[in-house]
Specification:
heterodimer; A: about 260 residues; mainly beta; Porin; 1 helix; about 60% strand; globular; disordered N terminus; B: about 110 residues; Immunoglobulin-like; five-stranded mixed β-sheet; about 10% helix
């Protein structure tokens, strides 16, 4: 059966016109740059996952992330970080996930270092406005130190044709007996080309106190039948300054069902 | 002062009245009705999808870059476009062999 666009009457409604993609991304970069000048940064490497703002109803996911740092400096070299998460959508707009975080190196045993809870809120319907928006709240507790971390991340995404630009702007507060309490900011962004569902190339950029890096990333989705999917991401982020590891390898795998 | 404040607010948030095209799609017995949806090129369109079945369905399309679960006996909104002329297939992820359709952009 075929139906045209005349099958329903157009409705008249008010649209809140959000700033354009380039204005948004420029604003995000300027805010982070301003924060940098005020010495508000995020400790350690902030190279991680770029979040999109969407939540899928009835979705459960098991997530695995790993990082490996390669650097001339022994203090940065051979650092490994692993993350295992279990997430579930709570509604059309809310997605919650719990993580176990571990670390190790070739010279030290792997051990559990932190636990984390995360809540993502989808703020706008996909494609309704010029940009899609979301918010991410994270609470992390170190297991080996008295250290807490809470962060809020604004997620902005813009699509034009086959290109998708995503920016994650984070404001983080760290406190505890084993750290100087501080407020930090960081930016993570991605430019992705929707080549095919199985393979999408991207470039990612990270900016934080100890992070200034950029590098290529490949992502893809492998359908496993029904609603089951394997979402994978593999990349190498190259350090631009001395504080950032020469290469940070990242591998993310999500099993969605 | 009020004029200045108002001007600044207008710079950030401009309210405009716009007509969004609405297309109704129904899901019945794990099939999309209509299975072919014709929409104009370079126009934003609001798909209002009504799932008449008691079980949930997911409207999904890589070509449209959309994925939306619609609970049984419920409605959901999917915005698409502006799109270039062409055909954009979609399917129901819960019933991939029967729930098939496409958006035709002229």
């Amino acid at each position: 059966m075929t139906a045209g666009f005349f099958c329903a009457k157009p409705t008249r409604r008010l649209i809140f016109r959000l700033p354009g993609a380039m204005e948004t991304l420029m604003s995000v970069v300027m805010i982070v740059a301003a924060s940098n000048s005020a010495y508000l940064h995020a400790d350690g490497s902030t190279i991680d996952k770029i979040y999109h703002p969407y939540v899928q109803l009835l979705e459960t996911e098991i997530e695995y992330r790993s990082r490996y740092q390669d650097d001339d400096d022994a203090a940065l070299d051979d650092q490994q970080k692993y993350q295992l998460g279990l997430g579930r959508s709570l509604s059309e707009q809310l997605f919650a996930e719990l993580y176990l975080i571990g670390a190790g190196s070739s010279e030290s045993d792997f051990e559990l270092t932190a636990v984390e809870a995360e809540l993502k809120i989808q703020l706008s319907e996909q494609g309704e406005y010029d940009n899609d928006w979301g918010l991410l709240f994270e609470l992390e507790r170190e297991t080996k130190e008295n250290l807490w971390e809470v962060s809020t991340t604004l997620i902005a995404l813009h699509q034009w044709s086959r290109w998708i630009a995503t920016a994650n702007l984070s404001l983080t507060y760290e406190w505890g007996r084993d750290i100087n309490n501080e407020l930090e900011t960081s930016l993570a962004s991605q430019l992705r080309y929707r080549y095919s569902q199985a393979l999408e190339p991207a470039i990612e950029f990270y900016l934080g106190e100890d992070t200034l890096g950029v590098g290529p990333v490949l992502t893809g989705v492998q359908r496993l039948g029904g609603r089951r999917k394997l979402v994978w991401e593999f990349g190498a982020i190259l350090g631009i300054d001395e504080a950032t590891p020469d290469t940070s390898w990242k591998l993310n795998i999500e099993y969605e069902f | 002062m009020r004029v200045l404040l108002g001007s600044n607010l207008l710079c950030w948030a401009i309210f405009v009245e716009a007509a969004t095209l609405v297309v109704n799609i129904e899901i019945k017995a794990h099939l999309f009705y209509p299975a072919e949806v014709i929409v104009p090129a370079n126009t934003k369109v609001k798909l209002l999808i009504h799932n008449m079945d008691s079980s949930p369905e997911e409207f999904e399309s890589y070509e449209l870059n959309r994925e939306k679960v619609i609970l049984g006996n419920s409605k959901a909104v999917v915005f698409i476009g502006p799109l270039a002329p062409g055909e954009y297939p979609f399917f129901g992820e819960f019933n991939m062999t029967t729930a098939l359709g496409k958006v035709i952009v002229n």
